[in-house]
Amino acid sequence: QRTHHLCIYKPRLTELDTHNRLLRFKNFDVALINKGILLPKLYLAISGDM
């Protein structure tokens, strides 16, 4: 399992901190797709990756 080093200024992370971190990664993916750097990928539970 990979570990990520986070810059944390609080003694404890809240649910909001976790949500914001995940949303930041999602927004980064969307920006790369919009720039044409990353190809969009659709996952369907029935058929797998497309």
Over the alpha carbons, how many angstroms does the gyration radius reach? 15 Å
By DSSP (H or I, 4+ residues per run), the number of helices equals: 1
Classify the secondary structure makeup into a structural class: mainly alpha
The whole-number mean of residue pLDDT values reads: 76
User: Roughly what fraction of the amino acids lie in strands?
Assistant: 5-15%
Please give a handful of descriptors for the protein shown.
single chain, 50 residues, mainly alpha, two-stranded antiparallel ribbon, elongated
Structure overview:
The chain is built from one helix and two strands; from the N terminus they run αββ. It has a two-stranded antiparallel sheet with strand order 1-2. The protein is mainly alpha-helical and 50 residues long. The chain is elongated, with a radius of gyration of 15 Å. It has a domain of 33 residues.
SSE layout:
Blueprint: H1 15-34, E1 43-44, E2 48-49
Antiparallel strand pairs: 1-2
Summarize the model shown.
It comes from Adineta steineri. The chain is mainly alpha-helical and 50 residues long.
